Amino acid sequence: MQSELIIKLLNGSEHHGILSQEFDPVSGQITFFCHAEKRSNTLELNEICFIKFLGRPELDESADDGEFFEDVATRTGQCFHLRLKKSGKRVPQGFFGFPIDNSSDFKSIFFTSKGYTNRHHDQLLGEVLSRQGLVEEADIKDALTEQKKLRSRRVGEILAEQAELSKTVLEKVIHNATRDGKRPQTRVGDILIDAGLVTRKQVDEALNAQNTGKRKRIGLILIERGLITEDQLLVALSRKFGLKIIDLDDITVNPQAFSKVPRDMIERMQILPFALQGNRLTVATSTPTDSTITENLRFATNCQIELVCAQATQIGERISELCDEGDGSIDELIEELDDVDIEHDEVLELDRINESDSKVINLVNKVLLDASKKGVSDIHFEPGAGTQPLNIRYRKDGICYVVHRINATYKAAVISRIKIIAKLDIAERRRPQSGKILLRQGTERIEYRVEITPTIGGQEDAVLRVLSSSRLFPLDKLGFSANNMQRLQELLKRPYGIILCVGPTGAGKTTSLHSILAEINTPDTKIWTAEDPVEIIQEGLRQVQVYPKIGFTFEEALRSFLRADPDVIMIGEMRDPSTAKIAIGASLTGHRVFSTLHTNNAPETVVRLIEMGMDPFNFADAMLGILAQRLARRLCKDCKEPYHPDRAEYDELVMAYGAEEFREDNLPVFSRDLTLMKAVGCKECEGQGYSGRIAIHELLINSPQIKHAIKHSAGVEEIADIAMAQGMRRLRMDGIQKIFLGLTDFHQVGQVSA
Fold this sequence. Notes:
By secondary structure, the protein is α+β, with helices and mostly antiparallel strands. The chain folds into five domains: 4-122, no CATH class; 126-224, no CATH class; 243-326, GMP Synthetase, Chain A, domain 3 (2-Layer Sandwich), CATH 3.30.300.160; 330-466, Beta-Lactamase, CATH 3.30.450.90; 475-752, P-loop containing nucleotide triphosphate hydrolases (Rossmann fold, 3-Layer(aba) Sandwich).
């Protein structure tokens, strides 16, 4: 079989070709067909530094005891971390080395006796960690066993696990495929796709899992098992490779050093070039085990490379900061805009700067990306009257705060730029407009929902809802109490009926509905969703974007779904009585229907729908349950502190919960040892004391008594009393339970519940 190879000469040049005859180092030469010269060629080994034999690495997992590791430095400046075999044939002309994992592009490499400057017998990471007393030998053996299992894992095993195929079915399909004349080298994934057992996406995911597992290093396995920390691993690696550890918080990055390395290489390799002295470039890495870093950097920069170790999180943060600075920060752009003199004539002001100005384009792009990166939910562009500046406010964790003030000269241009990228009419300034913006940052897709609203003085406000953070959460990660989780899961077993999720804008209703749909999303269930916009994409759902401008409304989508053989229907929002009536009708004819509504709580939702014109008898029979929710600010996990509440504070919590229900739910009794958590403030939460939000819930489940109350036009309080007697807990009560769990405080619960 012909073997592709790369020959590196001592003078630094390379030959690419195919081995013409079997390579025997004892002969002192190699014969190969040279691609560039298009002829056979013979080279003496004393001219050669090393020979790479290309191909898929062949890792013999049973040979671990007969192998050792070495770091090899060559005369041409490359460094390799390799496996060597104790039983390998020794010749004076040089030696063979082998890659340590399947990610390498060669299956073996031969170093000539003149080709290397240094060979360092490598200490195994496990031995280093064990000698330092960080892990036991038994832990190392377990981790090595897992590593070996991952390396030997076949894609068929992964597919069988992910697609829930039995081993018998898998073996039968493969046997039939090869018996029917398929080539023996046909991949298992292709066979299973042809048989209709898996999809191409599942095969690709399995291949990724296989490659990831084969590349998983022993240190990462030990960290995942909780046996060592990342810092301990970094110390061990630094000693293993003789590298210095630095704290990047104490380092000033030399811009010239940072610019030496292409930015895409910095981000891909997660390395930080920070010092340059003459031709020597110092680079921080958290993965000194990657033998390709030095070689690739030397080739890209033509510098001598000195590696040091640093934490991966620090490297990532500094890369992000420096990449942003390289493009000009938002504050720098605003300073440039402030240099423009303001004319008091408003007509001149509007005509002076237009939306095509490069500074305006750059500023708007940076604000949008900055908001997404910081986890902001909404961006508010608020032009002041006359010569007042344009304020930009972010809403994060439910709180609005000013982040930038832009020179008044640019306010019309900024709003116009937003309109242009949202594909809105820039000439229309008297009526509200709605649109969307889609940005791509690398592989990330970020969507913004845009609302333009005319304000006094001929101004327009723009509010952008950031949808990039919308993702699917498992139901058990949404903060449901044990009682609510149990009742909700029982509700989802019902074959038909309607379930509503209610609350104000931004309360996480769509997130909750998608998590609920994920619970019932199985191959035997056909699920249709109509949304505006589609915020979360979920495999297995048939998702539809409605377009009210062209008449494709929720009502139209719902009518179409009923003709498209649904089992489950999700309507993003019941905005009008006609949509609500069709949804309730669908739930009475054998379908499960989910939707959202803007109401304050669960009992109020019942009365609101009746007032909208729903038939009380139909709705009473159709309703399965109503989930009301709010998002309260979560105490920062990095700085929250325990404290002992006094009796007055405890009594206030009991009164807010209800003394009788407080006892029924076995909440903590008062004592001097009772501990709650309070906000403090730190760097991670920007001094706020809160970081992120937690959901509080109110789940009303239909029952014969509630049906009777609905049919007889009962009021909100009567329905609430019945539901409470049957196990429902109000929003504030659920929030107080989370106070005793140390997740939030009474002030935040009081802000979002009555």
